[in-house]
């Protein structure tokens, strides 16, 4: 493998080898087909969702404002990881440069941290809608929504900055074989010839703090929502309240930040494509397109 020799018998690895998921050519071909299909669905689902929200004025609400950023994050991360994984499955070239590996690792951290905080912001919207319905328009103003999204990206950037500082202190010696299908921090740090104990603790503290804070925010929001709904006496009122927050009650809400291919594909289905408002918006967009063609 390629290395740059430095002093004191220490080498700087210029590229890594991603071992992938299997050495079987038949299984690799099957995985390539599966992952390619998932990636295409991810791109079409998330890009389509962003387009529909941008084109339909009736979807200019806090919920869809958050969803368009969630789709953007899913699309960005999937594009950063999946094409290289597909290339490794289809060809014998498993090399990835140090720079690209570094970018993949930090992209994973940035998207993971940003989505964690963004999902907690998404939980705040139904909380306000149900627990403080009269104040919802005032509280969830455009300025507030922009601030919540900005906070999500800022925390993601801070976690990534810490990750960059920690990884810049890591040196690699003789091994450059990563037993993974993309560059994730744990398998990469395992190759280091320097002590990474303090680095791993620092990264874990920052990542864990973001995750725990988001989990607490989401939990408190939905406990408050459930408590408010249970106080409603009429069945129709309870059903209407549940439907208000159903878009963000998916099981994969928090776990989704840890997956690179499957959940970015499922997020548009979980949060949006099964929503009647989105279906109606899609119908309106298509009708406008057809009407404009007929006029021409």
Q: What value does the average pLDDT take?
A: 78
Calculate the terminal CA-CA distance, rounded to whole Å.
61 Å
User: How are strands sequenced across the largest beta sheet?
Assistant: 4-3-5
Report the sheet-strand fraction.
5-15%
CATH topology: Rhopdopsin 7-helix transmembrane proteins
Number of helical regions = 10
**What is the makeup of the main sheet?**
3 strands, mixed
Total strands: the figure is: 5
Query: Structural class, from secondary structure content?
Result: mainly alpha
What would CATH call the class? Mainly Alpha
> What number of structural domains do the residues give?
1
- The CATH superfamily is identified as Rhodopsin 7-helix transmembrane proteins
- In CATH terms, what is the architecture? Up-down Bundle
Structure overview:
With 296 residues, this protein is mostly helical. It has one domain (12-295): Rhopdopsin 7-helix transmembrane proteins (Up-down Bundle), CATH 1.20.1070.10. It contains ten helices and five strands; from the N terminus they run E-E-E-H-H-E-H-H-H-E-H-H-H-H-H. The protein has helices spanning 25-55, 62-90, 98-131, 136-139, 142-167, 185-189, 197-230, 235-245, 262-273, 276-295; strands at 3-5, 11-13, 15-18, 95-97, 177-178. The protein has a three-stranded mixed beta sheet with strand order 4-3-5. Strands 1-2 form a two-stranded antiparallel sheet. A hairpin with a 5-residue loop joins strand 1 and strand 2. The chain is globular and about 65 Å long. This is G-protein coupled receptors family 1 profile domain-containing protein. InterPro entries: GPCR_Rhodpsn, GPCR_Rhodpsn_7TM, Olfact_rcpt. It is found in: Membrane. GO terms for molecular function: G protein-coupled receptor activity; olfactory receptor activity.
């Amino acid at each position: 493998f390629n290395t740059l020799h430095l002093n004191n018998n220490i080498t700087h690895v210029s590229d890594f080898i991603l071992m992938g998921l299997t050495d079987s050519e038949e299984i690799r071909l099957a995985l390539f087909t599966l992952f390619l299909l998932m990636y295409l669905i991810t791109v079409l689902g998330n890009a389509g969702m962003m387009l529909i929200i941008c084109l339909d004025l009736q979807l200019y609400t806090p919920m869809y404002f958050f969803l368009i950023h969630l789709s953007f994050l899913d699309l960005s991360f999937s594009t950063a990881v999946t094409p290289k994984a597909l290339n490794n499955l289809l060809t014998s070239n498993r090399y990835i440069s140090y720079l690209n590996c570094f970018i993949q690792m930090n992209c994973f951290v940035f998207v993971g941290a940003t989505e964690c905080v963004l999902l907690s912001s998404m939980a705040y919207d139904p909380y306000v809608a149900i627990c403080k319905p009269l104040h919802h328009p005032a509280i969830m103003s455009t300025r507030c929504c922009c601030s919540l999204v900005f906070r999500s990206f800022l925390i993601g950037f801070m976690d990534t900055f810490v990750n960059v500082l920690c990884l810049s202190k890591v040196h690699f010696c003789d091994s450059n074989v990563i037993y993974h299908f993309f560059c994730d921090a744990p398998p990469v740090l395992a190759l280091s010839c320097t002590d990474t104990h303090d680095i791993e603790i620092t990264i874990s503290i920052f990542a864990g703090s973001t995750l725990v804070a988001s989990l607490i925010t989401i939990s408190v929001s939905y406990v408050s929502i459930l408590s408010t709904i249970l106080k409603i006496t009429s069945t129709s009122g309870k059903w209407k309240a549940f439907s208000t927050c159903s878009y963000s009650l998916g099981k994969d809400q928090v776990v989704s930040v840890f997956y690179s291919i499957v959940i970015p594909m499922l997020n548009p289905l979980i949060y949006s494509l099964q929503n009647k408002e989105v279906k109606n918006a899609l119908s309106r967009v298509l009708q406008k397109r057809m009407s404009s063609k007929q006029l021409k």
